[in-house]
Recover the amino acids of this structure.
């Protein structure tokens, strides 16, 4: 089926003194138009590297695309020229990162930064905005995120605002461009739960209104459940399980997903499991075959020889595990 | 719950003078921790959880109020406490990456508390260290001569726990011991802490912002907001019938992973507003600006703690007229 974003067999590595860190190991990801997709995984599993590869903002070197393809609306992102890429980033793709202090420039006011974005995106649509129009659009963008007193905020510097407010500004900036695909990289990880709830609800509303597609990157299963239609579970540089969010979380199939779900503390208070033994592999010398096999309790001989493909298990759910081999 | 409290805090106040004014980090809180209990202290960032812990440890002297440990008042600076007391109260910090000296081996790290408290001869100390590592589930011969950067985050936290337990404490403050860790590792640490509490007859003050985690660990839960306690109750009672509007807002904001949990959450309360700055705390009840059930009295008079029965204590005007409420 035709998707907005299509990643196939993406391999990305980082060249460091000790050798090559083979981080992304055949990532497959599909985002359809208007769809909200979650990308979940633990620290260091390659979520952010995936996003940065799509945006082509990985520093090359040390990073290196080892293979695979990223297609955005039918065009190969990896083969685009710098100019095309700039235009794509300006008008089609947009991103929100975890730490708003790093995305906002500390020496310019919010107004200056927001006006630039609004003006640029209007130029992209072939319009030149007057000063009043720019101002009005900026204020509207801030209001949409539920920001009180936008006129005053425009004259403030990032340091004068709280973490929740800064993240709202990043959302306002990201959504003021009418982009088609929003890459949200842990947008609420640094925030308190009540503020997280506000921001996510606002994001949800705005995305719905503008009809954008979203890739929501997070390590919180709860956030994925609340916000996305399809979830992708990532482990050590590859997608291990993908499916409709609710079915996947109710009935996880991959041993890693199962372990992860059992380790999440729940409100039912039945205690937490001991988690998954071991830790994420060293990317300098990753395990052969399925990268999860050293930590897996269902390990079989075949697991060490070749990485498992994504086996379809029905209900749009696919699992990269040899346990489900017969069912195809 | 046992009858006599190991730690009792009465009217604790801690203020920090700053250029912008006096920050009331902890504003008159009182609570008891019974022997063998695990009190979960929950609150958003800036609510004064860590300051409370640091006053108990003696890192800061309290501005006013008393802290009694085992019946004797201890509310003074660390350097004026006797060694015996320092041996009895210990702390585990949030980020083991920064609380363990990267240049020391685990053996050196563990030997510091033993030497400071003059426990055993050097040979005896070595066997004590072996025992400590075994107790937290790390094989000593493998770990004793490693440096912190050579082991994983979960293992580092286990070393930090071993260090805290080196002096046979009775009371351990756990300041967000798992929030820097991944979920798959968190479970192991939590179960370790639970096992140790039973084996060594420890009492914990468990500080966290994660309510789902509290459901599985604490025996009692206390909620803090802007330096004040809002609600204290035994865990099961707390989650069965949360009373304070802030608690309900917190609980309904948690992203959960299963539909069973969804059913346990209180009715959705839309989270609104920002956490006010602790320099400029609103008059009356500090929560009234964000409270969905605000009454005229809330902006004028600060409510008092009300006992509702079943060990449930709430500080809110909604319960002021009915000192012994109907439920329970």
């Amino acid at each position: 089926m035709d998707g907005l974003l299509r990643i196939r067999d993406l391999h990305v590595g980082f060249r460091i003194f000790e050798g090559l860190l083979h981080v992304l190991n055949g990532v497959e990801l599909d985002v359809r138009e208007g769809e909200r997709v979650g990308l979940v995984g633990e620290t260091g599993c390659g979520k952010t590297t995936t996003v940065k590869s799509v945006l082509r903002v990985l520093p090359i070197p040390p990073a290196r695309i080892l293979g695979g393809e990223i297609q955005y609306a039918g065009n190969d992102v990896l083969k685009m020229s710098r100019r095309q890429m700039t235009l794509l980033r300006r008008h089609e793709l947009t991103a929100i990162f975890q730490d708003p202090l790093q995305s906002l420039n500390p020496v310019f006011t919010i107004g200056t930064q927001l006006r630039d974005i609004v003006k640029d995106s209007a130029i992209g649509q072939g319009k030149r905005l007057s000063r009043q129009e720019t101002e009005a659009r900026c204020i509207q963008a801030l209001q949409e995120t539920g920001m009180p007193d936008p006129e005053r905020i425009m004259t403030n510097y990032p340091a004068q605002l709280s973490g929740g407010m800064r993240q709202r500004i990043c959302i306002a900036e990201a959504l003021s461009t009418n982009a088609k695909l929003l890459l949200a990289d842990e947008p609420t990880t640094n925030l308190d739960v009540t503020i997280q709830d506000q921001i996510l609800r606002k994001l949800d509303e705005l995305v719905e209104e503008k009809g954008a597609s979203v890739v929501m990157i997070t390590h919180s299963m709860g956030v994925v459940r609340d916000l996305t239609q399809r979830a992708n579970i990532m482990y050590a540089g590859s997608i291990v399980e993908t499916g409709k969010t609710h079915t996947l979380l109710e009935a996880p199939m991959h041993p890693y997903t199962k372990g992860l779900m059992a380790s999440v503390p729940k409100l039912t208070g039945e205690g937490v499991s001991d988690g998954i033994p071991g830790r994420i592999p060293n990317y300098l010398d990753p395990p052969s075959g399925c990268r999860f096999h050293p930590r897996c309790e269902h390990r079989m001989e075949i697991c060490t020889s070749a990485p498992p493909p994504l086996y379809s298990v029905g209900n749009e759910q696919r699992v990269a595990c040899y346990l489900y081999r017969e069912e195809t | 719950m046992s009858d006599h409290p190991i730690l009792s805090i009465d009217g604790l106040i801690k203020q920090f003078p700053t250029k912008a004014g006096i920050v009331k980090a902890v504003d008159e809180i009182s609570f008891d921790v019974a022997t063998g209990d695990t009190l979960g202290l929950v609150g958003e960032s800036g609510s004064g959880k860590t300051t409370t812990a640091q006053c108990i440890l003696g890192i800061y002297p309290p501005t006013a109020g008393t802290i009694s440990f085992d019946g004797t008042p201890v509310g003074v600076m660390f350097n004026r406490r006797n060694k015996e007391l320092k041996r009895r109260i210990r702390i585990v910090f949030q980020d083991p990456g920064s609380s363990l000296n990267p240049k020391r081996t685990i053996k050196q790290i563990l030997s510091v508390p033993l030497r400071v408290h003059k426990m055993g001869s050097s040979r005896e100390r070595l066997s004590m260290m072996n025992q400590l590592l075994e107790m937290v589930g790390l094989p000593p011969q493998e770990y004793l001569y490693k440096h912190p950067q050579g082991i994983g985050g979960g293992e580092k936290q286990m070393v930090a726990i071993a260090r805290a337990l080196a002096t046979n404490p009775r009371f351990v403050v756990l300041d967000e011991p798992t929030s820097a860790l991944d979920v798959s590792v968190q479970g192991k640490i939590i179960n370790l802490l639970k096992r140790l509490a039973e084996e060594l007859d420890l009492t914990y003050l468990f500080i966290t912002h994660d309510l789902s985690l509290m459901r599985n660990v604490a025996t009692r839960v206390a909620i803090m907001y802007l330096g004040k306690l809002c609600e204290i109750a035994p865990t099961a009672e707390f989650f069965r019938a949360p009373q304070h509007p802030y608690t309900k807002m917190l609980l309904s904001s948690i992203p959960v992973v299963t539909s069973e949990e969804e059913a346990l959450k209180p009715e959705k309360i839309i989270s609104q507003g920002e956490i006010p700055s602790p320099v400029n705390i609103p008059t009356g009840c500090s929560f009234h600006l964000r409270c969905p059930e605000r009454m005229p009295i809330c902006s004028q008079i600060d409510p008092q703690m009300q006992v509702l029965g079943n060990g449930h204590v709430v500080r809110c005007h909604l319960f002021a007229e009915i000192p012994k409420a109907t439920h329970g």
Remarks:
- Chain A has a mean pLDDT of 85.
